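Reagents: none. Just compute today. Nucleoside ABC transporter membrane protein.
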Amino acid sequence: MESAVLVSILLSVIAASTPLLLAGIGELVVERSGVLNLGVEGMMLVGAIAGFAVTYSSGSASLGILAAALGGMAMALVFAFLTLTLQANQVATGLALTIFGIGLAAMMGAGFVGHPVPKLPGLDLPLLSAIPVIGPLVFGQDFLVYFSIAAVIGASWFLYRSHGGLVLRAIGDSHDAAHAIGYPVIRIRYLACLFGGAMSGLAGAYLSLSYTPMWAEDMSAGRGWIALALVVFATWRPGRLLLGAYLFGGITILQFHVQTMGLGIPPQFVSMLPYLATILVLCAISSDATRIRLNAPACLGRPFHAAG
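Predicted 3D structure written out:
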């Protein structure tokens, strides 16, 4: 009985952590290129409704996942055009993208409220999935859970073991120097933004197709902002982002268990736990200015003006 409760809690932590991890790793790559996109929340919601609408209409979860990624990329393309081509302020544009995404998703999803879809199926390997504790945790997850782990591993390899990753980090640290030796700064930043948008869209798809397989307005509930905070918490490193996502996922699940323990804590305060933890972590990290300066991309949020 105790093992069943443990498995249930751990499965809940994985489910709560996956959207944070998907959105976070996308934003990490974007910021590594020197671009600050605060529109993660809006991209997640557009991805959530795009994935849900296509899945509900076509009956194909695969098409829904693809639509979610494309929806997030479309939002990211708008952001990239405004900030990289038209040189709009990145902070203001990112905030506007979130507000626009929230409204757009609500409008698109008006006709889908209350219509459930089948939850994304788990891997469910015949003998391995039956192993106590480990089976359901390791071999019983759906595609997006495994993809989120693979994305972290792939991003880590790309950033630190490939020439393309070296170029992307060089652009994030000194776009003028990278441009001077011939690297296409704007093109690479466009690609990074599109990757970040796709990952945010997939995070939204996980919410509407697996975490709660239905559409509800504003269902991301601030997870996009937590993903942004996780990038800083992880000091722009994929491995630390993985740990941070599961830590915050555990805090998110903790609120539900605290409510059932009868401790007399107001439910409103318990619901604040993930966001309170985010604020406390950011305050703790911000107090160490040297650590931030050493790890943050030097050109983060700075516009690039090509000479000539």
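Residues 2-295 form a domain with the ABC transporter involved in vitamin B12 uptake, BtuC fold (CATH 1.10.3470).
Action item: order primers for follow-up constructs.
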